[in-house]
Design goal:
single chain; alpha+beta; Ferritin; 2 domains; globular
Length: about 350
């Protein structure tokens, strides 16, 4: 069974979560800043190349090429700064699991579905990039890197604005396509209704499949689960769901939660049984009136995101454990990692 999930239970579809931004009051270390930016640039370059080739919308294609060019320049600047300042940081040579999963998902999409997903990831990625660069520019350790972060910020903000404008264009295109599909479906229905009895006799016998025709209020999709925060009963943030595991019978076995680390660096995956989680409706008392404007705006934006089942925006996912216990749990091993470990054990025995 591969790591890429297909529709089986809960209308599963793979997704990836980008790193969590930090505040200016708690700037990342130079090592974490450099590694996070390097991975971000790699993802922007590779996903931008995909958009330049696969996007249906011309503006999305142009934006993808722009991201490839701009982030190639950013990556080169960062490498030069590290060499000049003799910063002892080993740059990552490949994408981490989360960004690779997001790239794989984009590779499996086409047409307007690709455009919508690419633009959505770009808005999310650049919102977090702006927060990261602002944080380091304000309180970073290295003066030259701080200046570079501040000089790069305007470009990142322009990218974010362009991606937000593209979302409107892509959504309008999707509405037109959906309308055309509805017309085509109606035409096919009329043609089917006009078929003769002889034609009906030549059709294949009906199957015994009991098709699912609608989503129930208690049904979730992987699209909505992946990226959701898991907390304990005290409201402590335990981590985010990075993936969903199902077996060949379509049963949801577990969720993979990313815990520990900083800005996605050093994070490990922990497999938690699906039935260990509790889905709770937000108590109205939790919607405090003392929330800041920024918190309310962020909450409103998250609830408006294009998830397949946004109706679950008022749900909390609760796990009865502490953050320390979860971080001490054994790391979840993917099949490919298990193969690497077996090969290493065989070499050790020899």
């Amino acid at each position: 069974m591969t790591r890429e999930l297909t529709a089986a239970a809960l209308a599963l579809s793979a997704a990836i979560l980008l790193t969590t931004p930090t505040s200016a009051a708690q700037a990342p270390t130079t090592e974490n800043f450099v590694k996070t930016v390097a991975i971000s640039d790699m993802f922007e370059i590779q996903s931008g190349q995909l958009a330049a080739e696969k996007a249906q919308n011309d503006d999305v294609q142009s934006f993808g090429k722009q991201m490839t060019d701009d982030h190639t320049e950013t990556s080169d600047d960062l490498k030069e700064l590290i060499e000049d300042e003799e910063i002892k940081v080993e740059l990552p040579s490949k994408l981490d699991d989360e960004h690779q999963a997001k790239l794989d998902k984009l590779k499996g999409l086409s047409g307007n579905q690709f455009d919508k997903e690419y633009v959505r990831t770009q808005i999310d990625a650049h919102q977090k990039a702006v927060a990261l660069f602002e944080s380091y520019a304000t309180g970073g350790e290295n003066d030259d890197l701080k200046k570079w972060a501040g000089d790069t910020l305007p470009t990142l903000k322009e990218h974010l604005e362009e991606a937000q404008n593209l979302k409107t264009t892509v959504d309008q295109t999707a509405q037109v396509e959906d309308s055309k599909k509805s017309d085509d479906a109606a035409a096919r229905d009329e043609k089917t209704a006009a078929s003769t009895d002889d034609d009906a006799k030549t059709r294949a016998p009906k199957s015994n499949i009991k098709y699912v025709t609608r989503q129930a209020p208690t049904d979730w999709t992987a699209e909505a689960l992946i990226g959701r925060t898991v907390e304990n009963s005290n409201g402590d943030n335990l981590g985010e769901i990075n993936n969903v595991i199902i077996n060949e019978k379509g049963d949801v076995v577990a969720v993979v939660i990313g815990v520990g680390g900083f800005l996605g660096i050093g994070e490990k995956n922990v497999g938690v049984p699906f039935d260990a989680m509790d889905f709770r409706t937000v108590d109205p008392a939790e919607n405090r009136t003392d929330k800041t404007k920024e918190e309310k705006a962020e909450q409103k934006q998250e609830s408006a995101e294009a998830r397949f089942d946004s109706e679950h925006g008022d749900m909390h996912i609760v796990l009865n454990t502490t953050k320390e216990d979860l971080e001490a749990a054994p790391e979840f091993a993917w099949l490919e990692q298990q193969g690497d470990n077996r090969a290493q054990d065989e070499r050790t025995v020899r």
